[in-house]
Amino acid sequence: MTKEINSAIKDQMTTVDQTVIEFKNVYKSFGNNAVLRGINLSVKKGENLVILGRSGSGKSIAIKCLVGLIKTDKGKILVSGTDITQLNESELNTIRRRVGFLFQNGALYDSMTVRENLTFTLAHNNKELTADEVESSVVESLENVGLAEAINQMPSELSGGMRKRVGLARALIIKPEIILYDEPTSGLDPITSREIIELILEIQKKFKTTSIIITHDLACAKLTGNNVMIIKDGVIHAEGNYESLSNSNDKWVRSFLT
Fold first, then answer.
1. What is the pTM of this model?
2. Which terminus has fewer CB within 10 Å in the chain: N or C?
């Protein structure tokens, strides 16, 4: 099954205008709290999809469902045509190796240097690399985010923006086809936020990644999103580019973006 998944994904990813990610009527509740109430969305190859919504609206839950960290109650989640809700843990890990995840706080291991954080991730995903190949990949990933000089530093020595960059380097080191960004500019000053936004755009252009960006930052949404969706009451309430949503006839949508 794992080989079949790998083959299917590779074949599908070569298709022009391929839909890489698709949610079909996805539901998720926690006890009596219904968070996702029939989410439908799709993301095409090379596209940045921004998902907006109030706190607790289910944005982060949706992307955790996408990589199987949280199990859905109902519905399908397709990654390059494979329904991940039907996979076992081993098969899910095959999908996860193609997905980079930038967590809200960077989620670095505090007891490891920057080099060790990246090495650990790469070794976990590819056990066949030589030490020289691992080191080369670590340096390359840090260069891609402009932080090669931080390779021997500890996370505690880094600023918030630098930790986000290292987190992004760690996501990039596995050469993902998909990147999931969870509040990439949260807690950053405006200048550093702009740098992260520019980096997201550079990565999309250079690596042709397909991405979902969860954010409360309207500047981030406006600048990075090829498509923008707004979650309300557990469903996609509005969809379009940022400009069209800003001029929507729906007063709630307009108010959300101001």
1. 0.88
2. C
